[in-house]
Amino acid sequence: MVEERLSKKKLEILLDNLKGKTIGHPTLEQHRTPGWIASDIVWIARQLHIIENRKVLDLGSGVGILCIASVLAGASRCISVEIDPESISLQIENIKSSETETRIDVIRGDARVPPLRRGCCDLAIMNPPFGTVRKGTDLEFLKSALSLCPTSLSLHLKNEKSREFISREMKKIGKEAKVLKTYKMELKQIFEYHKSKIRRIDVDLYVVV
Questions:
Q1: pTM of the prediction?
Q2: Are the C-beta atoms of 181 and 122 separated by less than 8 Å?
Q3: Any residues with CB less than 8 A from the CB of 72 and at least 6 apart, and which?
Q4: Are 121 and 79 within 8 A, CB to CB?
Q5: Domain range for 169
Q6: CA distance 121 to 125
């Protein structure tokens, strides 16, 4: 039986032991969230008092890392939206192995136009596509999440142009975006166009309210 509250380190280990894809879908930009980053994000959410007993949304949830992390960190439920059937199958296996199936709802759908109603959740926690294949995809995911819930914690590629752009676009919809932390994320080679087995990139964690 998995404990409802784990230490941050135990949560990281549990998340890293979950199943993942070996070959990614190139147009979907599927990048797994490392366990140490996922556990840190939900711990930050706990420190901000925005996750415990709240409903969480993850758009483009992949194999379920952030949803599972959220409910194990105290969220009451998580709605997981993913379009890729293989990722959904792995996610369901991961949910069962982590014994979180009573608190996670998995929906197959397009994260940009999810079949959900405004106010369905309190907080979005996401690692969206970075927009390197299709420019602007990360912003589409972010705006979609904020059309459904008031607050978002979201990962985006770090660079000054992106920071200015995200801040400007959020102001247009009456929101404020703030960078909370920058991570050095390792991406394993799951796409044929990746030349190295592991790439390291800088990603920003934003809180948008």
A1: 0.91
A2: no
A3: 2, 4, 5, 6, 11, 14, 42, 98, 100
A4: yes
A5: 8-208
A6: 11
Cα 193 from Cα 102, distance rounded (Å): 38
Which residues have a Cβ under 8 Å from the Cβ of 45 and sit 6 or more positions away?
51, 70, 73, 123, 125, 153
pLDDT of residue 189: 60
Total domains present in the chain: 1
pLDDT band per the 50, 70, 90 thresholds, residue 143: very high
The answer to the question of residue 2 being in a domain is no
**pLDDT per residue as tens digits for the range 150-178:** 999 999 999 999 999 999 999 999 999 99
Token digits of residue 188? 């394993």
The CATH number covering residue 89 comes to 3.40.50.150
What distance in Å separates the CA atoms of residue 103 and residue 97, rounded to the nearest whole number? Answer: 13
In contact, 169 and 156? CB cutoff 8 Å: no
